[in-house]
Amino acid sequence: MSQTILGVLGGMGPLASAHFMLRLTLLTPAARDQDHIPAILWSDPRVPDRTAARLHGGEDPLPALLRGLRGLEAAGATAIAIPCNTAHGWYDAMQAATPLPILHIVDAAEAELLRLGVPRGPIGLMGTAGTLAMRLYQDRLAPRGWTCLTPTEAEMATLVTPAIARVKANDPAGAHAPLAQAAHALVARGAAAVVLGCTEIPLGIAAGPALPFPVCDTIDALARAVILARDAVLTAP
Fold it and tell me: Is this structure's pTM higher than 0.85?
């Protein structure tokens, strides 16, 4: 793994990808430059909107995603991380198209829930309308003991979706209040923790006061998964 180069398929959105690189760096136990994980960021904001593709017949993002994978392969990447939840709706097609292992962000979120000590049972899930409609978390976590409570249609329309758009427009501070309101509503309905299942959402949540209940930041979760994968290989017999 000392020869591993992480390829980051990003740009969805650009701020979330840049923040992933920051968090990967800050979470890596390192005393010098050489202790960090070599990484290549492919940040291409031209990838068609993933939610529009799934819900409204918009342009298929898969060709752009595969173009990014090819670019990372050519640059020497040996493993892939994708700091965009909704893009994982095309995970199987991407994994089938590359010999490189792609870390799955929902698996990373599960590991983060375990690290936080969140008991199996009901948890809140915030994300794009596309992520929720594709049941990326619901179907993957249900066999593992977690059931996902999601925002109502009204909460999505008035709170979550506009807040995600604010972050994409470089206004994380303006996203905090509506995201916090939606998260509190999920906890009030019985969630033991809230998964921030869109990589724009942690940026909005972090722009204001900390929430008084556990949250699973999927940017940090994916960064920790990369670090753990590196460390597991380094310590293998």
Answer: yes
Using CA atoms, how far apart are residues 17 and 42, in angstroms rounded to an integer? 9
Q: What DSSP letter does each residue of 121-161 carry, written as one string?
A: SEEEEE--HHHHHHTTTHHHHGGGT-EEE---HHHIIIIIH
Task: State mean pLDDT over 18-39.
Answer: 97
Q: Which whole number is the average pLDDT over 78-104? A: 98
Write phi, then psi, for 174 (nearest 5 degrees). Answer: -70, -15
How far apart CA 84 and CA 9 sit, in angstroms, is 9
pLDDT at 236 over 80: no
Of the candidates 84, 175, 192, 196, the residue annotated as catalytic is 84
Tell me whether residue 84 is one of the annotated catalytic residues: yes
Q: What number of residues does the chain have?
A: 237
| 73: nearest Cα among 2, 20, 6 | 6
Q: Is residue 198 annotated as part of the catalytic site, yes or no? A: yes
CA distances from 175 to 133, 191, 220, 226 (A): 22, 21, 19, 28
Q: Give me the catalytic one of 24, 94, 196, 198.
A: 198
- Give the tokens for residue 60: 């298929």
| Of 183, 208, 207, nearest in space to 196 by CA | 183
Across residues 23-28, what is the average pLDDT? 98
Q: What is the pLDDT of residue 16?
A: 98
What DSSP designation does 53 have?
H
User: Contact 17/44 with Cβ under 8 angstroms?
Assistant: no
Residues 13 and 28: their CA atoms lie apart, in Å, by 23
